[in-house]
Amino acid sequence: MNDIAAQTGFAVSTVTKVLRGDGDRYGIREATQRQIRELADKLGYRGSFFARALRSGNSGLVVLVTCTAEFPVRICTQNLVAQELCKRGLKVMTVDVTWELGLGRNMAEVLREVTALHPAAVLVGRIEGVAVDQWVGVMLRRGVPVVGMDYVNKLPIDQVYVSRRQVAYLQTSHLLELGHRRIRFTTGSGQDWLLSERLLGFQAALKEYKLRFTPELVTHLHSRVPDIFQVGYDAVRDSGWVASGVTGVTALNDQVALGMLHAFGEAGVAVPGRMSLVGSENQAAAAWYAVPLTTVDWNLKQQAELAVEWLVERMNGLSAKPRREAIQPRLVVRQSTAAPAG
Predict the structure, then answer these.
(1) Is 334 helix (H, G, I), strand (E, B) or coil?
(2) Which residues, 6+ apart, have CB-to-CB distance to 51 below 8 Å?
(3) Which of 48, 167, 301, 310 has its CA 20 to 30 A from that of 280?
């Protein structure tokens, strides 16, 4: 930059502003900017984004920290958020800890590297662990705006999440409206808050129809293999649902539902003739299954738009109390559900 200043006769500060992309903001004439950029290209100048971040203490980056674990719904959310940030002219970096943890690294180490980027703001996806909560606390103390998406806890940050309670309620109430009374509700294992919300939604639908909840109505999916489709397949093979007279099943997600459809087909159980099945997430492939899947759309685009809107407001200095918004899903009825036979 000193060489460019010497050869053009402009001040180093002027050269710096132009090469940093701030020429228009500081009212520098277009001819001046063009002369500086042309010489910079001729001399082979390359700016260092991270050097500027270290010098200024703020990279201007919005860092999206996620843990997709290869779940399509999380990958879709991550992409929608990144696209929304780019629309607003923000620089985006995605850090998917799935990749890092898969290499044997620990969460705290990964998050320290994110801290070293000096992010201007942070969006946190669905990640569990004390290390993440502690790191978010560090970001807040540094004055970095943080918004959580399906990252639900008691931290003083804005949080936007899909109402899992309503997801399960819509799945169950649809089957009940069709006349099914022997229903099985499937959910993941563990004590995750969002999984607990799904169970509450199932119970609320039963109560509305004056049906008694018992633990036997719930099937916890235990993955013995990394293939989520086979989790659904194994659930049908191991459950004895058909023999016990079950006529309706809710699936944890559309991938699990596809595995179930395959198992029902192998067993000669017609869907929806003998068994009705409701998925969750409304993944793009759900409409193209051999039996198009009735499912619940999570309104992920609405979640992404609101999370980014709130983050931008915080970046612009909003100091209101932390906000929470439960995005409401909607039922998508296709051919995998019908009234129970007979």
Answers:
(1) coil
(2) none
(3) 310
In this structure, the strands spanning 183-188 and 248-250 are parallel
How far is residue 176's CA from residue 169's CA, in Å, rounded to a whole number? 10
Three-state DSSP class for 139? Answer: helix
**Residues 175 and 292 occupy one common structural domain:** yes
Return d(Cα 75, Cα 94) in angstroms, integer: 11
> Number of folded domains in the chain?
3
Q: Is residue 60 part of a domain?
A: yes
> Is 192 part of any domain?
yes
Cα–Cα distance, 123 to 240 (Å, whole number): 43
Report the distance separating Cα 298 and Cα 51, nearest Å.
Answer: 41
φ, ψ (nearest 5 deg) of residue 273? -55, -45
Q: What is the pLDDT of residues 217-247, one digit of tens each?
A: 999 987 666 788 999 999 999 889 999 999 9
Counting residues of the chain whose pLDDT is more than 90, the rounded percentage is 70
